[in-house]
Structure formats: C-alpha cells, structure tokens
Amino acid sequence: xxxxxxxxxxxxxxxxxxxxxxxxxxxxxxxxxxxxxxxxxxxxxxxxxxxxxxxxxxxxxxxxxxxxxxxxxxxxxxxxxxxxx
Length: 85
Fold this sequence. Notes:
Layout: H1 10-31, H2 35-60
Helix pairs in contact: 1-2
C-alpha cells in the first residue's frame, strides 16, 4: 500500500480534515447534551465528503489508471469430466 500513494492528494487531505473536525464537534456536543451542536457536527462530516468529492472531480484527486487487457488467443478449455469418454 505504501507504494501506491493512496490518499496523498489535496482532495483526500481536505475531505478527511473536514470530516475529522466534524466528528470531533459532534462528539463534543453529544457529551454536552446539545443536539443542535451535534447535528452541526454531522453536517460537517457530510460536508467533508462532498468537498473531497468535488475536489476530486476538479482533478485534485488520485488520477484514474486505465487497465489495458492484452489481446491473446483464448485458452483451450477441456470438456467437463462427464463428457469425456
């Protein structure tokens, strides 16, 4: 996993940072028994995902790799065991 640079993009860092802050806010207000603050933290958690996705759509995320399938002749297949004589 270390060689794939998974998540080392501005979109990933921004999305995770906003989500983490929202998680901390929601947790703190849950302990303080303040429902409005808790739901504000949940909104921040969701906002982190939206911001990260929007930044990825703008090209600030991990580039997509295209997988090419080599063109080879189909492999020879055997008949099922019951079909052989």
